[in-house]
Every structure is written in C-alpha cells, then in structure tokens.
Amino acid sequence: MTEEINDEEKYQQRSRDLDEETLFVVSQTFKALSDPTRIRILNLLCTEEHSVNDIAESLNLSQSTVSHQLRFLKNLRLVKFRRAGTTLYYSKDDDHVMNLLKQAVEHAAHH
Hints:
CATH superfamily: Winged helix-like DNA-binding domain superfamily/Winged helix DNA-binding domain
Shape: globular
Oligomer: single chain
CATH architecture: Orthogonal Bundle
Radius of gyration: 17 Å
Distance between the termini: 47 Å
Number of helices: 6
C-alpha cells in the first residue's frame, strides 16, 4: 500500500532541503516584489501584454525606468517579450509569481 504525502508534507520536506540556488531565486523573487515600481509593472502585465511605451504612459514613468525594471524582471524570468518590428511587447512569464502578487494585493486590500 502506497502512502500519499499531502501538499503540506511535501512543502515541509522541500523547505528542509533548500539548496543555495533555491534560496537565491526565492530571495530575488521577493526582492522583485519589494519594489513599488516593479509591482505596478507586474500588476499591469497580469492581464495582457504591453509595449514599453504603453507601460511608461500608463504608469507615468520614463521609458528608461520601465526598460531598466523590465530587464530586472526578465532576468528573473518573471516577464517575457516578443518583438513586432521595432517594438517590444512584454507579458507575464510566471503564473506562480503573479498569483503570489495577486494574493498580496488581496491581503493588503483587507486591511
């Protein structure tokens, strides 16, 4: 008879066995989510893709600021892009992190 391990037990096992790479990725993910500008960008990309210009205009930010933050988020594989001519369109690349962001926003809304 095979004993099934529930999700909580799986998490507890993984959390005991955190390697350095996992620790680094988790800390970088939370670093990404600790910046208000990056949160605003990710929130905008949660539902649909946008060009750098669209993001800058929608959030009242400079293109330079948006590009810098998108580069950071792309390096963490939280966003991805596609090219259409000379325009880059960015979209979410990690539903897990987007769900984490949505939960944090919902949590904040309850206070």
